[in-house]
Write a structure and sequence with these properties.
With 168 residues, this protein is of the alpha+beta class. A hairpin with a 2-residue loop joins β1 and β2.
Length: 168
């Protein structure tokens, strides 16, 4: 029996539609790494780096979008607004220039992998890959991500703690 619990409580149709788009992205990621494994490639050798590159590409765009420079308030403004909070059933625990503490109670990426019949171990690994982008985004805002817990690892919530290191 799976230890990964991931059921949404917010079921507003627009939020469901956005979740389905995120699930689709997670499905692509799963299928690409699965096909690579079938062909004898080790996804560990390229998937994390590719997803990190995506985060490093997106990060400067988000810094500009936030309009507040490289700080955690700007990061929250650019990426974790009202709709993101609903999609991930997110609680913003703290936000200031140097900290952005978020708790996610639902993850559409995990849901996509569950729908594919992935094992708990596969879901955890796919989450680790996906989080490479979040770690890179934290770097783009002058900090790092400390992942305290993850739904994909069987925890009740994903506790993301972004901390700014570079006080430019």
């Amino acid at each position: 029996m799976s230890k990964v619990k991931n059921e949404p409580t917010v079921k507003f149709p627009l939020i469901v539609a956005v979740r389905e788009q995120l699930e689709h992205r997670a499905l692509w990621m799963y299928l690409i790494q699965d096909e690579a494994k079938k062909k004898g490639y080790d996804p560990e050798e390229f998937v994390p780096a590719a997803i990190r590159r995506c985060g490093l590409y997106q990060g400067p765009l988000l810094v500009k979008k936030g309009g507040m420079g490289k700080n955690m308030k700007g990061f929250k403004k650019s990426l974790f607004g009202f709709f993101a909070q609903k999609v991930f059933e997110m609680d913003v625990k703290r936000v200031d220039d140097d900290h952005l503490d978020l708790d996610f109670h639902y993850c559409p990426l995990v849901k996509a992998w569950q729908k594919q019949g992935c094992s708990d171990e596969e879901i955890a690994k796919l989450c680790d890959y996906a989080m490479c982008g979040d770690h890179a985004l934290g770097e783009c805002f002058g900090g790092h991500l400390d992942l305290k817990s993850a739904i994909a690892h069987g925890d009740e919530t994903c506790q993301l703690r972004f901390v700014r290191d570079n006080k430019e």
